[in-house]
Amino acid sequence: MYFLCQLIKFNLSQELMVQFYTATIESVITSSTKQDTHRLQCTIRMECLEVSWSDSEWQRVIFSDETRFCLGGDAQRIRVWRHRGQHQGGYGAATMAMKRDPLSINKAGSEFPLILGRDVSGVIMECGLDVSYFKPGDEVWAAVPPWKQGSLAEFVVLSANEVSHKPKSLSHVDAASLPYVAATAWSALVNTGGLNKDNSARKRQDVYALKCLCILILGGSGGVGTFAIQMLKSWGAHVTVTCSQNAERLVRGLGADDVVDYTAGPVEKKLQTLEKFDVILDNIGGETESWALGLLKPWCGAKYVTLVTPFLRNTDHLGIADGMMQTGVTIATKALKHLTKGVHYRWGFFAPSGRALDDISEMVDAGKIRAVIEEQFSFAQVPQAFEKVEKGHARGKTIVTVTREQEE
Hints:
Elements: E1 2-5, E2 8-13, E3 16-20, E4 23-26, H1 32-36, E5 41-50, H2 55-62, E6 66-71, E7 74-79, H3 93-100, E8 119-127, E9 139-143, E10 155-159, E11 163-165, H4 172-175, H5 179-192, E12 203-204, E13 210-211, E14 214-218, H6 223-234, E15 238-243, H7 248-253, E16 258-261, H8 267-272, E17 279-282, H9 289-292, E18 303-306, H10 311-318, H11 320-339, E19 344-347, H12 354-365, E20 373-378, H13 382-391, E21 397-401, H14 403-407
Parallel strand pairs: 14-15, 14-17, 15-16, 17-18, 18-19, 20-21
Antiparallel strand pairs: 1-4, 2-3, 5-8, 5-10, 5-21, 6-7, 8-9, 9-11, 12-13
Helix pairs in contact: 5-6, 10-11
């Protein structure tokens, strides 16, 4: 595996500065023992990837005391300034460390150099001994789990159940913009919200009438929101979206039925004038849930699903055991509180799934979902790509191409 880490420098505050220097890492698996541990994994050569990362992996890099890089075989240390705050281990560091090394065998900081990036579209180079669904040369896409090394590299190793065949109608550039947001929206709306193509279009209202489900997406112009709009509309649901005025044209073009501008006054008052909803997907969090649950239809099985949860914050502050206990108490308390009002309160999480991407690939090839890309960068422009993503308010995905630069 070869990975080239370009110079990235962000002056985030007076107390916080991070520098990554060019590093080349080479890893060759030679022993049969190591081959056995990768029996169910595939090695994928990167064609394109989307610049996105979870807070846990980015903050883990920022708040590390010291990182060791291998530069041409010589071990050198690069000291990273650490902000003296509560999250000295990084946001989500406790949970990610447990997932990567549940028995705490590895030395602290052994995950470095940490490769960022979650989305990948490329070609399979090698397959493990027990992989039968894929073969070398297959064009695939995937969403890399946050506890694994990311996609901002020439090669990436994934489990076979995390990979899916790329939609035939999409180029690698377009395909790289979808897996992470698609898997997140699918997990929240299908696994947690209970929606599917059969129950979204028609819902029994009374003995004589049938009506489609009404879905509200809070923060609908982001990556998860733009994908969710298209998926729900392809299933026949009625979709309402909140976004800023300059994003209205985008979300309407993706199929949104009603659009509410949150910059033109209190958004909750405008939403209260509309028909109540069967499902709400909250991409914003904060004070939103204090009024959003009142927009659901009571005693009709309506669900509120939020993607902004305190799970990682709790495990960072309290440790794994106490943090998970506190999280369980929080979700149970909120669920019971709102259940007495006739609505269901749920948390949604990203869940990598090759099977979900299989279904999504069929929807893409059927023309029901399209990629929304704002800007494209070469691999040498990775620092500029991250600077753009850091500014926020994107109207599409930011893509980095890998192989085109190498061919030149």
